[in-house]
C-alpha cells in the first residue's frame, strides 16, 4: 500500500508539471526556453539544499549517472518547447505514450517477465487515452511540436530506466540536476527563444520555480526512490495515469469542462492500469 501511495503521489507531481508548464507559456509571460532553464536551476538548488540538510553531503557519482543527466536534459527542453504548440492533455498523451514504449522496450531487453495481464492492461489504458484525447476527428497536431514531445518521451523513459539503478533517490536526482545545470545553461543560450523572443514575467518565473523545486525536483526524487521496486513495464503503465490527472488539473485550474468522454475514458485508463499492475493469484 505504501508503494502504491508513493507512486500515486509521484504521478500527481508529473501531471502538475504539464499543467504548470502550459499555464506559464499560455499566460505567464515567459518563453519556453527560459521556463526550462529556471526550472532546471530551481530543481538543482532545492535538491542540493535537501541533500545537505538530510544527508549532510553531496555525492555526484553513482550508476547510470551519464544516462540520467543526458536524458534529463533531452526531456526538459523537449517538454518545454513542445508545449509551445500542444495543450496539456495532448502533450501528456504523446509524452507518456512514448515513455511506455521506451520502458517496455527496456524491460524486454533486460528479459523482465511480461505476463499477459500486463500487456492487456497496458493496451486498455492506452486505448482509453486515445479515446479521451481524440474524441471524434481529434485535434490537429503540429508535427514539429509532436516530435519534440516524442523526443522528450524517449528522454524521460531512459531517465526512468536509469533511475532503477539508483540506491538513494534523493541523492541520485540531485546529482542529475546539478550536473545537468551547466550544460543546460549552455543549451538554453543556444536554443532559439521562439517567435516572441525572450520573455521573463513574474508569474512565469514563479511557475517555473514551483515546477523545478517541487513537482520536478522533489517529485523526481520520489520517483527514483520507488523505481528500484517496480518492474520497468509496471513503471511504464503507471505513468499512463498522468494525462488523465493532467486533464483533471486543467478542469480545476484552467476552467476546462467535465465531459462524459473524460469520465468514461478515465475509468478505462485506471482499470487498465489496475489490471496491468495487479498481482497474479498464486
UniProtKB/TrEMBL annotation:
Its main location: membrane. It comes from the Bacteria. It is found in: Membrane. The chain crosses the membrane at residues 36-54, 66-83, 89-109, 116-137, 143-162, 174-194, 200-223, 230-254, 260-278. One of its GO terms (cellular component) is membrane. The keyword NAD does not apply. SUPFAM superfamilies: Multidrug resistance efflux transporter EmrE. Residues 147-276 form the EamA domain. This is EamA-like transporter family protein.
Amino acid at each position: 500500500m505504501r508503494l502504491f501511495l508513493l507512486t500515486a503521489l509521484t504521478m500527481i507531481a508529473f501531471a502538475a508539471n504539464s499543467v504548470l508548464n502550459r499555464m506559464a507559456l499560455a499566460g505567464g509571460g515567459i518563453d519556453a526556453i527560459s521556463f526550462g532553464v529556471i526550472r532546471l536551476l530551481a530543481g538543482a538548488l532545492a535538491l542540493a539544499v535537501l541533500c545537505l540538510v538530510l544527508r549532510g553531503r553531496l555525492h555526484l557519482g553513482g550508476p547510470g549517472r551519464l544516462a540520467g543527466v543526458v536524458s534529463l536534459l533531452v526531456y526538459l527542453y523537449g517538454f518545454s518547447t513542445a508545449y509551445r504548440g500542444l495543450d496539456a492533455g495532448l502533450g501528456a498523451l504523446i509524452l507518456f505514450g512514448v515513455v511506455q514504449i521506451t520502458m517496455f522496450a527496456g524491460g524486454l531487453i533486460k528479459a523482465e517477465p511480461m505476463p499477459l495481464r500486463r500487456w492487456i492492461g497496458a493496451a486498455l489504458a492506452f486505448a482509453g487515452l486515445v479515446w479521451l484525447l481524440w474524441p471524434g476527428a481529434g485535434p490537429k497536431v503540429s508535427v514539429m511540436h509532436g516530435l519534440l514531445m516524442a523526443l522528450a518521451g524517449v528522454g524521460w523513459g531512459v531517465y526512468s530506466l536509469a533511475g532503477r539503478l539508483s540506491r538513494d533517490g534523493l541523492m541520485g536526482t540531485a546529482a542529475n540536476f546539478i550536473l545537468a545545470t551547466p550544460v543546460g545553461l549552455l543549451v538554453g543560450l543556444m536554443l532559439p527563444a521562439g517567435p516572441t523572443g525572450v520573455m521573463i514575467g513574474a508569474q512565469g518565473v514563479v511557475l517555473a520555480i514551483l515546477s523545478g523545486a517541487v513537482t520536478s525536483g522533489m517529485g523526481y526524487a520520489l520517483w527514483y526512490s520507488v523505481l528500484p521496486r517496480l518492474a520497468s513495464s509496471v513503471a511504464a503503465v503507471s505513468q499512463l495515469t498522468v494525462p488523465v490527472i493532467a486533464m483533471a488539473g486543467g478542469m480545476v485550474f484552467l476552467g476546462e469542462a467535465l465531459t462524459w468522454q473524460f469520465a468514461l475514458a478515465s475509468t478505462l485508463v485506471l482499470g487498465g492500469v489496475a489490471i496491468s499492475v495487479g498481482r497474479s493469484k498464486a
